[in-house]
Amino acid sequence: MNAQAKLMIAAMGVCALPLAQAQVAEFEDFGHVTRVQPRVERYSQPRQECRTEYVQVPVAQQPQRSAGGAILGALAGGVIGNQVGGGSGRAAATAAGVLAGAAIGDQVSNANRAAPPPGYQEQAVRQCRTVDSFESRNVGYDVTYDYRGRTYTTLMPRDPGNRVRLRVSVEPDERQ
């Protein structure tokens, strides 16, 4: 073996000595459970509550119009236009009299007619509001246990029963 290889092996051996001394002994043991308390978190879950109400909504009513005044006005206007017009303009005067008489008769007949009271119609109205709904969820168990005269507390995902399995590691204190 050459000198460089020997030097490399010696250096690795020297570096491995502290690791060999710092060995950790691990084993399993059990602790006695003295208290188990579920850890519950309460959180808000907003949700919508909706309901439908029926309300009376006013509906505008159209006034009932009478056609009688327009008909009488058209007849009277046609007669007057026919008497006023002469020759070839008689037909045009009659037509103009019918139109003017119908318009005037409609206004006179329906001028004083009062609008009827508004009618009502039932309409569905949906009303929604957001409310907080509180829910609880178990996030684990606070477990208190004794091991060799000392008391410890930890959070565990499930209730361990009356004893808890422990992984114990023993390591020398190198500060001596």
TrEMBL record:
Keywords: Membrane, Signal. It comes from the Bacteria. InterPro entries: Bact_OM_lipoprot/Surf_antigen (IPR051407), Gly_zipper_2TM_dom (IPR008816). Coiled coil: none annotated. Residues 1-22 form the signal peptide. It is found in: Membrane. The keyword Signal applies. GO terms for cellular component: outer membrane. Its main location: membrane. Residues 68-108 form the Glycine zipper 2TM domain. This is Glycine zipper 2TM domain-containing protein. It comes from Massilia cavernae. The lineage of its organism: Bacteria, Pseudomonadati, Pseudomonadota, Betaproteobacteria, Burkholderiales.
